[in-house]
Amino acid sequence: RLRSLGIVTAGAAVLVAGVTAYRNQDEFCRTFVMPAIRMLPPETSHQLAVIACKYRVFPRSQYEDDVNLQTHFFGKLLSNPIGIAAGFDKNAEAVSGLNDLGFGFIEVGTVTPSAQHGNPRPRVFRLPQDEAIINRYGFNSDGHKAVIQRLRTIRKKENFNGIIGVNLGRNRDTLSPIADYMQGVRLFGPVADYLVINVSSPNTAGLREMQSKEKLTELLERVNEAKSRLEHNKKVPILLKLSPDLTLNEMNDIVSVIKRPKSHVDGLIVSNTTVSRENIKAPKNVANEAGGLSGKPLKVRSTQMIAQMYVLTDGKIPIIGVGGVSSGYDAFEKIEAGASYVQIYTALVYEGPGLVEQVKEELSSMISAVGHKSVGDAVGTKARFYLPK
Prior knowledge:
14 helices
């Protein structure tokens, strides 16, 4: 208990210093505070970051998004295409604080029907040499009931106009996985701006098998059936989050499924974490930890897969690109490959909250430099260039 108290106290002190540095827009935050925070256990650092956003200790971003970053998002207008990926705010505790940082949209979750603790600790590991993270959280979630109450409270606030997506998962010990997703659609459909069907996390046994052609067809047909029965927000977009470890044949199977009217989706998220450990610099005892790898090592594979899915779908299904984005240039690559929107997460661990403004500023400059008037003009312009060679 004393050790835990010491860790939390030290973490709080570092957090206060970080907030002070961030308020002053000081390089001190990136150079000294973020490395200090990384001396804490990874999951403790994550919890502190969520708390900081929950209580809105970071000031609201004063950065004004350039008009060339504006883009349409399933019928709504985003001031910028940069979002926070699912996994950071698993339980919708930090939505307002994340909105303050300047994200164009916020995705919460993964949320499971019943509350569950996830996998035993330790379950998060930093790979600083690779600017990467391995996690095997295993869908730790407060459950539908707690999360829906928080989202309803947020929606009642007059000054909140952010775009919120809800990432849906299944319980580890469920006897009816498809029913878990249908329940999520029925409950969150009326309050979410979009829903994500997550069948690609490597940390829940049997989950990725639901990406197979037969199982995915049944799942999406039932999900769309549940959506059609909503009394409110009947047109809530349904997105499918994919694994970066799929083969080309598996991707073709998925495309054949989502092109069918009964099992169609409104968008894709490419991609989730990978079980691959190619070209990792970290010591083997860390690199070989079980779980999904995120961060810079995933960047190339994610971009390639965005291009593949863009080409396979003829550019007709919007893609949210995620995986290894730590700069505006990285975001621009994913957009050129076929992503209409981009999410970040792991890079925040290494760069801090100022990264959001940095990515937006660099992306805006890149769009102008190549002669485009808007981010939409760049989507998929080099998709074939980014295909695997």
